[in-house]
Amino acid sequence: MEYFAFQWHITDSCDQRCQHCYIFSENNHFMLKEMSWTEMEHVFDNCLDMCQKANRLPYFYITGGDPILHSRFWDLLQLLKSHDIPFTILGNPFHLNDEVCRKLKACGCERYQLSIDGLRDTHDRIRKRGSFDTTLEKIKCLREAGIRCAIMTTVSVTNKDEIPGIIDVVVEHQADVFAFARYCPTSTEKSAHLSAFEYRDVLEACWQKFEHYKDRGTSFNLKDHLWTLFLHEKGLFKIPEGLQEDMIYEGCNCGNCHLTILPKGEVYACRRFGSNVGNVFCENLYDVYTGDKMDNFRDYDKFEKCSSCELKRFCRGCPAVTYGYTGNFYGADPQCWKVIEN
Question: What is the structure's pLDDT at 220?
Answer without folding.
Answer: 97
